[in-house]
Amino acid sequence: MAHRIQVMIVDDISETRDHLAKLLGFESDIEVVGTAASGAEAIEQAASLVPDVILMDINMPDMDGITATERLSAQVPSAAVVMMSVQGEADYLRRSMLAGAREFLVKPFSSDELTASIRQVYSREKDKADRAAVVAQVARASDPTHAGQVVAVFSPKGGVGRTTIAVNLAVAAASELGKKVTLVDASFQFGDVAVLLNLNPKDKSMAELVPELEQGLDPESVEKFTLTHSSGIRVLLAPPSPEMAELITPAGVKHVIDILRQHSELVVVDCAAWFNDTLLGILDLADVVLTVLTLEITSIKNTRLFLEVADQLGYSHKIRLVLNRADTTLGIRVADVEHSIGRKVDHTIVSDGRAVVYALNRGVPFVLSNRESQVSQDVLRLATSIVGGQESRAEDAHKAPQKGKSLFAWR
Ligand SMILES: Nc1ncnc2c1ncn2[C@@H]1O[C@H](COP(=O)(O)OP(=O)(O)O)[C@@H](O)[C@H]1O
Ligand SMILES: [Mg+2]
After folding, report:
1. Which domains does the chain have, with CATH numbers?
2. Does the pTM of the predicted model rise above 0.85?
3. Residue to probe by mutation, ligand 1, list 356, 375, 376, most atoms within 8 Å of CB
4. Ligand 1 pocket, 158 CB below 6 A?
């Protein structure tokens, strides 16, 4: 069956909520997924239900509909708000639109007016999202340089598994999926990629590239500074000592990644955990930003803050949430995480201290040395979805997080 338009009703008067729900109950393409009696309740519910359309009353005690709409456009941007108000409130119309409402219904309205508005708003929003996906695809397909996909692996908190995932993802995409892959260690001060792959940054690293960047880099010369790992991937390592990191400019990094993507089908960038111009430059040119988090309050909190900034910067559409060590549920469940950040988790990776630490200490990625383990299979699945799943990504963006979804429901 086709997707039913998921609607949430917000009104402080319970009869109005019931009346609207009853009216919409007759429509086969519309489903009322929730109701709320106040602005605050609306925000909380919308974060976990992620409805397509929210019917919002303007006059409510405590938080009014306009304030709630303003917050919702930041926190649940995919939900389109239809404001409902009584006649003669012209100023409200202007303020509602400024707050981010997509439609304005003047009470009393007929059932036809109501359903027509819902359908119109929904199809307009869907068209917008579809167009954005097509534009992105066309841009890639028509790019004369056949630039490869850039995947930034980022987290706003250290120690959550970025490097582990970046390295194994890059190796899996090459060894299992046959892709031409370059891995960049953009943790310029304390990069760990060399350790995980048993490579030496004194042989070749980003440090050698810096003087060349000043004079304008010859695209071919980048190859001279990347090492080839036994798995077949090319690796651009961070400089061997932290002070050299200062020589690397944001523009230089962008330039290097732009050149590397012309030589690869996939460029995986292991990012540092702090927000600076270099990171913004990388996020800017990335096609996908894998945002890694774990089931810890600090990680969840920082992820939520990052997602807010990412939304303002217009990166929301390229973010994919990766929950690492997803089975270490010390009181926090996946559903709690999704509820707290108002977004669904796209991928989960199990915790496997034995396989991960053994691989780390030997300098051989676990997707090679321990291919059959669950953690390897999880990373492989992630690689497959990134390398082969552009279309499904656009589709996924419309889906709401499922309440009570089990940890590995996507398997
Ligand atoms: N899925 C996992 N299972 C078990 N241990 C993990 C897993 N992912 C990462 N680790 C461990 O967590 C620590 C931090 O990982 P790392 O990749 O260095 O994080 P980051 O790059 O985000 O700082 C390392 O000791 C690593 O071995
Ligand atoms: Mg790291």
Report:
1. 5-138 (3.40.50.2300), 147-396 (3.40.50.300)
2. no
3. 356
4. yes
